[in-house]
Here is the input.
Amino acid sequence: MTIFGSARERRHHDVGDQPGVGEGEWEPFFGKLAYTATLAPKLARRAGVASFLAFAKRLPRGAGYSLSIRPYRAAVPNETPTRALNRALEELVRECPE
Here is the structure.
């Protein structure tokens, strides 16, 4: 789940990982086409919205979790916003594949 928030609006948006029909686009993810939700990239493009990606890594011996937060970068030239999301998620998986 990805959470987007806006200090101005004082609310957050929860984005599920199962887009419905017409709520996604087919984009590469680790070399295979994946149906990817479009809502998160649309929210990230809104003016004045800071967007982040995060993951939690379990610490040894049940000592809790380490939370890693990364800024969400916009699409590069000739890249769709949905592909940019998949690229960013690929980077996180490569950083912490376990």
Summary: The first helix runs from residue 39 to 44. The radius of gyration is 14 Å.
